Automatic annotation (TrEMBL):
<dbReference type="GO" id="GO:0030170">
    <property type="term" value="F:pyridoxal phosphate binding"/>
</dbReference>
<dbReference type="Pfam" id="PF00202">
    <property type="entry name" value="Aminotran_3"/>
</dbReference>
<keyword id="KW-0032">Aminotransferase</keyword>
<dbReference type="InterPro" id="IPR015424">
    <property type="entry name" value="PyrdxlP-dep_Trfase"/>
</dbReference>
<keyword id="KW-0663">Pyridoxal phosphate</keyword>
<dbReference type="InterPro" id="IPR049704">
    <property type="entry name" value="Aminotrans_3_PPA_site"/>
</dbReference>
<protein>
    <recommendedName>
        <fullName>(S)-3-amino-2-methylpropionate transaminase</fullName>
        <ecNumber>2.6.1.19</ecNumber>
        <ecNumber>2.6.1.22</ecNumber>
    </recommendedName>
</protein>
<comment type="similarity">
    <text>Belongs to the class-III pyridoxal-phosphate-dependent aminotransferase family.</text>
</comment>
<dbReference type="GO" id="GO:0009448">
    <property type="term" value="P:gamma-aminobutyric acid metabolic process"/>
</dbReference>
<dbReference type="GO" id="GO:0034386">
    <property type="term" value="F:4-aminobutyrate:2-oxoglutarate transaminase activity"/>
</dbReference>
<dbReference type="InterPro" id="IPR005814">
    <property type="entry name" value="Aminotrans_3"/>
</dbReference>
<dbReference type="InterPro" id="IPR004632">
    <property type="entry name" value="4NH2But_aminotransferase_bac"/>
</dbReference>
<dbReference type="GO" id="GO:0042802">
    <property type="term" value="F:identical protein binding"/>
</dbReference>
<dbReference type="InterPro" id="IPR015421">
    <property type="entry name" value="PyrdxlP-dep_Trfase_major"/>
</dbReference>
<comment type="pathway">
    <text>Amino-acid degradation; 4-aminobutanoate degradation.</text>
</comment>
<dbReference type="GO" id="GO:0047298">
    <property type="term" value="F:(S)-3-amino-2-methylpropionate transaminase activity"/>
</dbReference>
<keyword id="KW-0808">Transferase</keyword>
């Protein structure tokens, strides 16, 4: 496969769905065998193929099969894989210096990213930004800032939340399997409130906001005590939980309640942020201005970078030397992030995310009209999901998600699943995907539902 080895990624990769071997092909099977001898079992991958190149809307595997990418490496390559501005800026930086440690000798790209995020995040109050490597690390630090600023210990999160895999963020995450099982004991002072999940609210979607809020209020005021709560951490659209868009007004009620009690609101926009939902940040759809906001996945086009952006008085509450990390705010990652932000602005990707989302919702509603397996289609912008159920009920249909995913893989389309019950198909295409490829991918998806 020498032809494959010379493939370069990026938008110049041929934009086509094409299978030239069975899936997985011989090279992928060979790598799978080496992998199982060298890597531990706890690292699972969604697709059975190994990547050789990616860009635009496709991912080419080591056997030369070209797949349409509807996952963007879990909402990371929003501007596309190897996007030109990202590659150019990061490579130029790599030639200048790869690392000094910002805590040892600082550099300008870090400051530029902070300035950009201070400008782009919701609210025109004075802000500060600190950079980290991963989403989990950003959440860990958001809690450190909130505790330092309030002098309070407790953190409130929600059912179906995902905030990461480190000890604190695993404790904040709702789902036992696969994230928590056997890994406890967990960090203390983490409390969980119900999420206003419209599709599954027991008394009906129209009651979700008020009833979920009443339970949240009871938890904070009567059980934990508002004076003990440093922050409420919430994803404006829950990602791993199944692209749950909280019932209308729920987030605003929570935010108003918190403001009245000196509790800080942390919006976890690690998955929703940086243009994914058709806005720079998903909070904007709700008119929500959080005290702190975390971003990561879409921020640097795949290079590790995460951020906490927040009110200057809150961020300045942590003492000098109390925050940081050896690799935090790596200079090549910072340049990549500047390339991402430039690309979003230059290519009008906020609008593009909305258009891609409109198309996916139309297609999925159309498929739903023909199959009772789709219980609900939801999401915002280019972050859209279908929740699959046993026909005639709301019983989660995990098996259907597995079958659709497999069918799509065998026909050259890479999709992802999500959801507390594993019964949600989620679609996160790179915004660099063409209309033609997207339509082709959804034609395959139609066939997948027809074949169920
Ligand atoms: C992915 C994710 C995280 C964790 O990010 P990592 O980079 O995997 O540590 C946290 N919060 C949300 C909402 C996420 O989607």
């Amino acid at each position: 496969m020498t032809a494959v080895q010379t493939l370069a990624g990026g938008p110049h990769l041929e934009q086509i769905r094409r299978l030239v071997t069975e899936v997985p092909g011989p090279r992928s099977r060979e790598l799978a065998a080496r992998r199982s001898a060298a890597l531990p079992a706890g690292l699972a991958s969604a697709a059975p193929v190994y990547a050789a190149a990616a860009g635009g809307g496709v991912l080419v595997d080591v056997d030369g099969n070209s797949f349409i990418d509807l996952g963007s490496g879990i909402a990371v390559t929003t501007v596309g894989n190897s996007a030109p501005r990202v590659v150019e800026r990061a490579s130029r930086q790599l030639e200048k210096f790869t690392h000094t440690c910002f805590l040892a000798t600082p550099y300008e790209p870090y400051i530029e990213v902070a300035e950009a995020l201070n400008r782009l995040t919701p609210g025109d109050h004075e802000k500060r930004t600190a950079l980290f490597n991963t989403g989990s690390e950003a959440l860990e630090n958001a809690v450190k800032y909130a505790r330092a600023a309030t002098g309070r210990p407790a953190v409130v999160t929600f059912d179906h939340a995902f905030h990461g895999r480190t000890l604190l963020t695993m404790s904040m995450t709702a789902k036992n399997q696969p994230y928590k099982s056997t890994f406890g004991p967990f960090a203390p002072e983490v409390y969980r409130a119900p999420m206003a999940y419209p599709y599954r609210w027991p008394s009906g979607a129209e009651h979700a906001t008020n009833e979920a809020f009443a339970q949240f209020e009871l938890l904070v005021d009567s059980q934990v005590g508002a004076d003990n709560v440093a922050c409420v951490v919430v994803e404006p659209i829950q990602g791993e939980g199944g692209f749950i868009v909280p019932a209308d007004g729920f987030l605003r009620k929570v935010a108003d309640f918190c403001r009245a009690r000196g509790i800080l609101v942390v919006a976890d926009e690690v998955q929703t942020g940086i243009a994914r939902t058709g806005a720079w940040f998903a909070c904007e759809h709700e008119g929500l201005v959080p005290d702190l906001i975390t971003s990561a996945k879409g921020l640097a086009g795949g290079l590790p970078l995460a951020a906490v952006t927040g009110r200057a008085d809150v961020m300045d509450a942590a003492h000098a030397g109390g925050i940081g990390g050896t690799y935090s705010g790596n200079p090549a990652s910072c340049e990549a992030a500047l390339g991402v932000l430039e690309t979003i602005e230059a290519e009008g990707l906020l609008t593009r995310a909305q258009l891609i989302g409109d198309f996916m919702v139309r297609e999925l509603r159309d498929i739903a009209a023909q199959t009772p397996v789709i219980g609900e289609v939801r999401g915002r912008g280019a972050m859209i999901a279908a929740e699959l159920v046993i026909p005639g009920s709301r019983t989660p249909n995990r098996e259907a998600v597995a079958q659709i995913t497999r069918f799509c893989q065998l026909h050259g389309v890479l999709t992802l699943s999500a959801g507390t019950y594993g019964n949600v198909l989620r679609f996160l295409p790179p915004l660099s995907i063409s209309d033609a490829l997207l339509a082709d991918a959804f034609a395959v998806l139609r066939d997948a539902f027809a074949a169920l």
